[in-house]
Amino acid sequence: MSGITELDELLRSMRPKLIEGEFVFCTVSGHIADYVELAPLAPLALFRESEGLTLVLDKSVAESAGLSFEGVYRQITLTVHSSLEAVGLTAAVAKQLASQGISTNVIAAYYHDHIFVPANKASAALSALEAFHSDEC
């Protein structure tokens, strides 16, 4: 099943969903092969950068593991199957949230885009994203 590529259809069809829990972005140095112990951390996401590994973890897991982080985020999943070839979804979402003074960290996965916003602005972010649907109806 291929995802939607047309921006207006994506915005009209998406139903943003606020995911339970608080998440943090952590970093560890080295290579993934050096970290057999990452499996028990169950990272929501892992990205390899030249400076080290970025992990998106549940806040309580990061605290238990003694990993430092600089902010607490909530995850909003855009529940529409967006194609990896779609143009403009990330820009439209970022612009909408920026207009409300809300920073965004976006992870695009195969089926959905996942927006991480500061935990204290999660409700406002959800409302701002839901406006795409109400504007179109």
UniProtKB/TrEMBL annotation:
Residues 2-74 form the DUF2241 domain. InterPro entries: ACT-like_dom_sf, DUF2241. It holds the Pfam family ACT_3. PANTHER family: BLR5128 PROTEIN (PTHR39199). This is ACT domain-containing protein. It comes from Vibrio zhugei. The lineage of its organism: Bacteria, Pseudomonadati, Pseudomonadota, Gammaproteobacteria, Vibrionales.
